[in-house]
Write a structure and sequence with these properties.
Elements: E1 7-16, H1 20-28, H2 30-36, E2 42-49, E3 56-64, E4 70-83, E5 87-95, E6 116-126, E7 129-139, H3 143-163
Antiparallel strand pairs: 1-7, 2-3, 3-4, 4-5, 5-6, 6-7
Length: 164
């Protein structure tokens, strides 16, 4: 039996030049999420969100890997806690196209738990500024890539907010 990979909670904070309600809306509505979620060279052509406690999300990420290969990676989870315009806690899992949870082995990556938690917190800083804090648990060996990916996502989120 193999030893489980060590996990680390990534914590990333970003201040956006937008009111908290707008940041919340762009983080919870599929038509906005598909525009910013994921690393810079990836898109999310399919985003389904049933935004309520116990509701499920199901998304498809597509893009080109550094080696030139094209990938399609599905994810899913359910909402554990929703405190409007303040906090969201959901699970995050690899999935197949039908929304079934699959192991990370399905995508050629070992060491991920079947389900991890993701937390987003939204703080009104006044003057139409919002601080968003992300907490995402992931395997230690993926933490550096996770930090890069989330920061690229937040860069895209800032760009989307500028257009609204």
């Amino acid at each position: 039996m193999s030893t489980p990979e060590p996990y680390r909670d990534l914590v990333i904070e970003r201040v956006f030049n937008a009111p908290r309600q707008l940041v919340w809306d762009v983080c919870t509505k599929p038509e906005h999420v598909m525009r910013w979620w994921g690393p810079r060279n990836f898109s999310f052509p399919i985003v389904k969100i049933d935004f309520r406690v116990g509701g499920k999300y199901h998304m498809c990420m597509t893009g080109t890997m550094p080696d030139g290969s094209n990938v399609e990676i599905w994810s899913t989870g359910y909402y554990k806690e929703i405190n409007p315009i303040e906090r969201i806690v959901c699970t995050d899992s690899f999935a197949d196209a039908e929304g079934n949870v699959v192991s990370s082995d399905h995508y050629g990556t070992e060491g991920w738990e079947l389900e991890v938690d993701v937390e987003l917190m939204f703080e009104d800083l006044g003057n139409r500024k919002t601080k968003m804090t992300l907490r995402h648990s992931m395997p230690e060996f993926m933490a550096d890539e996770g930090i890069v990916g989330w920061n690229e996502s937040f860069d895209k989120l800032a760009e989307v907010l500028e257009t609204l």
